[in-house]
Amino acid sequence: MDCRETRLQLNALLDGELSAAHTGEVQAHLAECAACRAECAALRELGRGIAALPRQQPPPQFLPEVRARLERPERLNWSDRLFRPFWLKLPLEALAVVVVGMVVLTLYWSPRREARMAPEPSAAPATPADDLDLPHAEAKRGALKAQIAMEEVADKLEENRQRTGKDAESLALPAAPAAPSRTSPAGAAGRKDDNGVITAPRTNVLRREAVSVSAVPSPAVSGRVIAGDERATAETAGLVPQLQVHATEFRRGDQRVQTAVTQVGGRVLEREEATRRLRVEVPAAQLPALRALLASSAEFGQDRDQEKSKLAARATEAPLGVMLDRAAGAGEREGGVFVDAATSNVVVDVQIVVTTEP
Amino acid sequence: MERVTPVEEVSDQEWIARFRNGDETAFNQLVLRHQQRAFNLAYQVVRNHEDAVEVAQDAFVSVYRHIDQFRGDCAFTTWLHQIVMNLARNKHRWWKRRGRPSSISLDAPLATADGTLDRQLAAPDDPPDQTAVNVEFVDQIARAMAGLPLKFREVLVLRNIEELSYEEIATVLRCSVGTVKSRIARAREALRAQLKGTE
Asked: Least CB-CB distance to A54: which of B119, B160, B195?
């Protein structure tokens, strides 16, 4: 054993914590090394000095004071105060954390969800007051009410056609429910042309996303139901609703559209494979059904289909609702949809989008 | 005739058992038996008379309230040392956070409750080689100890004053025996360095 190893063991030797074998080795080295002996003596002296430090005596009243302290209520530190008794406080605190977490999550997610459900600011109903900042929830309510109004209008159109056969132009449309439209001075969204058709600027309209069937933004439309001879004007004003159908190839999409159109009692007017467009004509009341059929016939698997149907169903609420909302407020509101006065049919353009992914 | 066991001969375990059975005087006996040790240990760590009294008394209050947690797998004195050391550490940190030096200067006379100088060297009936320790040297050690970090002071007090084994020290400080061994070596080195600085 050399000096370095010996000095590492000196403290243990002096404290009696060294094994017998090591003690022998260290002592053998100390017997022949004066420097290590001196080091050992210094450490021993140090230990004696520490042990000789004055002993402090407790005050005479130590025990009574301890007893007095016992009489006082226990001073709990923060952890004791927070957690003890464990069996009672821990479950309650865990429950409180869960409840608070749920409340926070609810508060956090609700506005986001509402924002997703409500139209985007740029896709707000094509009202002339897009610059106003109405809450999304109100816009959503308005869209739903407008959809109901749309259905009422379609029913009345059908009823009127069967009963009187009169030109739909004379049909008095019911007043629209409080729509998300933000009333503003007339003319802000459109103007009348020479034929009396109000052509609207291509302002922001409600934009919805659907995985399979998506509603293409509809332009703002005129404020009354248009007679058949005004079709060209209506088309140029962008009154024809447009749908997008996503399919893996044009043939499949084409088949789906034709099947759906047939099912709702409509017909295909034009079919252009090069541009993948179909122009179809369906009863106005069947337009939501057409959208739903196209959505439900999606080809991207069952789960996807369900999701798409939901999305598509949601998508049917707004664009048509907005259009009919305009129609409902004919003369007062500026908006409308192209409805053939003679047949109560609407013309719809369907764009087939070929995509490999839903 | 039944022989009455003198108080000194009753073991700590016996007092504890009596106290657990509702004998309040058993707790008093435990306090009387260990108060000097608890107080001195607290004093060596916190280096202040009032704080040491508070720490030692709180330690016995803790013993009273948590006697059920003492499982008896170590000596009562080891458990008591553990409590005192924890409370002393807390007190030390409490003062440290408030900017008060952790140790009072030992250049000044040691203050006691009655204001008198109460320095006692080790018992006068110590062996001749211990009584031969120079008083001045002890004063130097006391000053040097005050300047040591708390973790070094703890192990030196427990080893050289309380005379605990490395294993007992490890139990009190909740660390390994190896840690105790190396910490004692470093503490003594640090103390020697302090002594050289005070010379």
From this structure: B119
What b/e sequence results for A64-102 when a residue is b if at least 16 CB atoms lie within 10 Å of its CB, and e otherwise? ebbbebeeeeeeeeeeeeeeeeeeeeeeeeeeeeeeeee
Of B28, B40, B58, the CB nearest to A56: B40
User: What are the structure tokens assigned to B81, written together?
Assistant: 């040392």
Distance from CA of A81 to the nearest CA of B (A): 16
Q: Are A226 and A197 spatial neighbours (Cβ–Cβ below 8 Å)?
A: yes
Q: In the block, which residue shows the tokens 């053939």?
A: A340
A171, A197, A227: which is closest to A339 by C-alpha?
Answer: A227
- CA nearest B59 in A: which residue? A66
Which tops the pLDDT comparison, B173 or A323?
Answer: B173
From CA A243, how far away is CA A221, in angstroms rounded?
16
- When CB atoms are compared, the residue of A43, A53, A70 closest to B161 is A53
CB within 8 Å: B57 and A47: no
Say if the Cβ atoms of B121 and A52 lie within 8 Å: yes
Convert the pLDDT of each residue in A245-258 to its tens digit.
888 888 888 888 88
Cα dihedral across residues B166, B172, B177, B183: positive or negative: negative
pLDDT beyond 50 at A211: no
**Is the model's pLDDT at A116 over the cut of 80?**
no
Average pLDDT for chain A: 67
